[in-house]
Amino acid sequence: MNVLADTGNGFLIFDGNEESVGSKENDPCKLRLTTPIYPDGGGGGVVSFNASRNPGTIQDGHNQLEMGFLRVEQSESVRGQQGNLRGELNVFLNDGSGEGDAAMVRAFALECDRITKIHPNLVQSLRNVLGIDGSGPAGSPDHMTSPQGRFQTHQQEDGNFVTYDTSTTPWTAVWSAWTGRIG
Q: Which domains does the chain have, with CATH numbers?
């Protein structure tokens, strides 16, 4: 184990192929990635998950193959607004077609209260898993109902999930995967 830093509050160590950042207090440790917000966006940072081109050797990012990354940045809905810290988490994954940016696909993105992007293939896959794709056995559900029967959640054609309160006439939408709480 190689201790790189040890303070009264926390530590940073390397042990074999692992890096550990730890807190000695009742406060979670933090790794801060900082970027300015410019008129076209920014803020946040990226954590990249890679495969080594040459196993067993020290390599910088140019000698690694990117499999996926998590990017947190200023939300597209407020892009470029100085001082607006509304964040968006984006999940990018390599689609297997090769290396570099052309092979990285945004699988989904979300803000604190809504899903802002979901890849169309994921929507279809989710429909298949839930049995609401129309190809399942007869009687496959096209919605979910709460145990008391008051609420129903439906997947719309655009992939959005919407929950309705069925005690009202007409039914009232109370929650949406894309917009969060309604009303």
A: 1-31 (no CATH), 32-118 (no CATH), 119-183 (2.90.10)
Q: Please count the CA atoms within 13 angstroms of the CA of 157 that sit on its side-chain side.
A: 0
pLDDT at 125: 78
C-alpha 135/C-alpha 142 separation (Å) is 11
Task: Indicate left, alpha or beta for 129 from its phi (over 0: left) and psi (-120 to 50: alpha).
Answer: alpha
What does the CA dihedral 26, 30, 36, 39 come to, rounded to 10 degrees? -80
The amino acid at 139: G
Q: What is the DSSP code string of 70-109?
A: EEEEE-GGGTT-TT---EEEEEEEE-SS-SSGGGEEEEEE
pTM of the model: 0.65
Please compute the mean of the pLDDT values over residues 68-76 and round it to a whole number. Answer: 93
Quote the CA–CA distance of 174 and 176 in Å, as a whole number. 7
Residue type for 181, please? R
